[in-house]
Amino acid sequence: MREPNSTLTDALLDPILERDPAGPRVTWYDDATGARIELSGLTLANWAAKTANLIRDEFALTPGARVAVLLPAHWQTAAVLLGCWWAGTEVVLTPDPDADLALVTPDRLDDADGVDEVAVLSLDAMGTPVRELPVGVTDFATAVRVHGDQFLPGGFRAALDGLSVEEILTKARKSAALQGFSTGDRVMSSTPWETVDEVIDGFVAVLFAGASLVQVVNPDPGAVDHRVVTEKVTVRR
User: Fold this and answer.
1) Among 59, 85, 91, 167, which lies 20 to 30 A Cα-Cα from 101?
2) What are phi and psi of 118, to 5 degrees?
3) By the 8 A CB rule, do 84 and 158 touch?
């Protein structure tokens, strides 16, 4: 049973880490480049902890702060979302000048106008930093790697665009049941994570069910059948 004061990340990751920490949890493909990255539950948790430590220690955000996450569906975005929720911050998915922190790709820097703290993610698989950033803008890859891979949560409030942890978990439970997700499933998806429903249906519900995600961007229709076999996909959404 979930502790009443646990974060959304605790609710999603604790059962996974207890049951199968080494198994694949997020497998990410970009068919435009041929890239493939796979994270176990433990590795995903370590990245989330680094992100949460960065949010708390470097940006000095406390539970209840608001973070604009303006990122595509990506394995690093998965870690960022979990890190934000572990730190007790509320994720918003649209540009918001009143946010306390914005996490963006280089092409979306303008969407962070008015935000006091901004970090840019290159989303490069090797952690290559973004060059020639404006003064005062943080390179996420450089900053996050020095932070610890363990995190002790300190509280929570709203978690995603005004929704509480309990509200999100209720939606995730219903979504997982509707989509037929269950423990051990391999769910293949190319859904973007641009709206609350997309994040819940395409990411949160997968983890909530104890399933693992095969997220494909720029999908090649000709690669689908082969990938279903090689990744042992049990559910396509």
Assistant:
1) 167
2) -135, 135
3) no
User: Which residue do the tokens 């990122």 mark?
Assistant: 71
Tokens of 216: 């494909």
- Cα separation, 59 vs 87, whole angstroms: 11
What's the full length of the chain, in residues?
237
d(CA 80, CA 47): 8
SS3 for 174? helix
In tens digits, the chain (237 residues) has pLDDT values of 445 458 999 999 999 999 999 999 999 999 999 999 999 999 999 999 999 999 999 999 999 999 999 999 999 999 999 999 999 999 999 999 999 999 999 999 999 999 999 999 999 877 789 989 999 999 999 999 999 999 988 767 689 999 999 999 999 999 999 999 999 999 999 999 999 999 999 999 999 999 999 999 999 999 999 999 999 999 999
Report the Cα–Cα distance between both ends of the chain, in Å, rounded: 29
Q: Cα separation of 210 and 184, whole Å? A: 6
Query: What pairs with residue 91 in β-bridges?
Result: 67, 160
Listed residue (44, 29, 19) closest to 230, CA to CA: 29
If one counts every other C-beta atom within 10 angstroms of the C-beta of residue 225, the result is 9
Residue ranges of alpha helices (H) inside the chain are 8-19, 41-53, 75-86, 140-144, 165-179, 196-199, 205-208, 224-230
Nearest CA among 112, 114, 154 for reference residue 133: 112
